[in-house]
Amino acid sequence: MINFSLPGLAIAAALLSLAGPALAANDVTIYADQAKIIQLTDQPGTVVVGNPSIADVTVQGERVVLMGRTYGVTNVIILDREGKQLAALDVTVQITDKNAVHVFKAGGRMSLACAPMCEQTLQVGDELVRVFDPLAKEMQTKSDLAAGGAKGD
């Protein structure tokens, strides 16, 4: 049986109430190349991203859209216009979701998205010469065609 003292509980409750929910850090997990909406209680004035190559944000009113760029861990601190902290997020960006398959061959890696058919995707860490370069060229050609630029081969 655990015994709690009434004064001890009162002190603990008082300390917790001083911290306040806005100062608490929240763990957020997101996949690379995906976004998540974070709803806030007020409009942000300043948003600080620890490592923008891992995650980035866009502000839309009282919402922050968090985007996973590549796998890793970073943090995001959101302040209101008066400098008070609205949120502190510990952000983990995972490289792929449950539909991902990674093929390892001769020291290189190739990533596939299998939902339901498997198609090659480009992920950080894929084999540079045999996988990354040809796929990057195809993706650039597709982007150019969509923008009305280069003609298909």
Describe this structure in words.
With 153 residues, this protein is α+β, with helices and mostly antiparallel strands. The protein contains 2 helices and 10 strands; from the N terminus they run H-E-E-E-E-E-E-E-E-E-E-H. The strands form 3 sheets. The protein has a 4-stranded mixed sheet with strand order 1-7-6-3, with no helix packed on it. Strands 2-5-4 form a 3-stranded antiparallel sheet, with no helix packed on it. A 3-stranded antiparallel sheet has the order 8-9-10. 10% of the residues are buried.
CATH architecture of the largest domain: Sandwich
Structural class: alpha+beta
Distance between the termini: 77 Å
- pLDDT < 50 stretches: 1-24
Tally the helices. Answer: 2
As for the CATH topology of the largest domain, it is Immunoglobulin-like
Question: Could you describe the largest sheet, including whether it forms a barrel?
Answer: 4 strands, mixed
Number of domains: 2
Instruction: Give the overall shape, derived from the CA principal axes.
Output: elongated
Order of helices and strands: HEEEEEEEEEEH
The number of E-state strands comes to: 10
Taking all residues together, what is the mean pLDDT? Answer: 81
Lateral arrangement of strands in the main beta sheet: 1-7-6-3
Estimate percent helicity: 10-25%
Taken as a percent bin, the fraction of beta residues is 35-45%
Q: What Rg, in angstroms, do the CA atoms define? A: 22 Å
**Text of the CATH class of the largest domain:** Mainly Beta
